[in-house]
Write a structure and sequence with these properties.
Helix content: over 70%
Shape: rod-shaped
Number of domains: 1
Distance between the termini: 120 Å
Organism: Paenibacillus whitsoniae
Protein name: Septum formation initiator family protein
Number of helices: 2
Order of helices and strands: HH
Oligomer: single chain
Number of strands: 0
Largest sheet: none
Pfam family, one: DivIC
Radius of gyration: 41 Å
InterPro entries: DivIC, FtsL/DivIC
Strand content: under 5%
Keywords: Coiled coil, Membrane, Transmembrane, Transmembrane helix
Length: about 110
């Protein structure tokens, strides 16, 4: 009978080991699923942030272009000849003794 008791104890120990191993595997699987879910979410957030950064870079480039154009226009406005040209063109001013000519657009 002692051999029978040893076999029964050994079988019980293997059953307990299998149960613990199964519980451990379930825990590891759950942990891996959680980790993969977090990584997937981080990739989605990273993609969104990259899109925002690209849009901001585009806006920055546009703002720099507008700033450069405005700076050039300001520099040109300090020239008296350019100011005379703008005044004549946009506000239809003329010097004394000049006859303004207007070209009508044909319809």
């Amino acid at each position: 009978m002692p051999a029978q008791a040893a076999v029964t104890a050994s079988r019980a120990q293997r059953t307990g080991s299998k149960r613990r191993l199964r519980i451990l595997m379930i825990f590891v699987l759950c942990f891996l699923c959680w980790g993969i879910n977090n990584i997937w979410g981080q990739f989605a957030k990273l993609h969104d942030r990259k899109a925002v950064v690209a849009d901001m870079q585009r806006q920055l480039t546009e703002a720099k272009r507008v700033n450069e154009t405005t700076t050039k226009e300001i520099a040109r406005l300090h020239n008296d000849e350019y100011l005379d040209q703008i005044i004549r063109r946009d506000f239809h001013y003329s010097k004394t003794g000049e006859t303004p000519l207007s070209a009508s657009k044909s319809q």
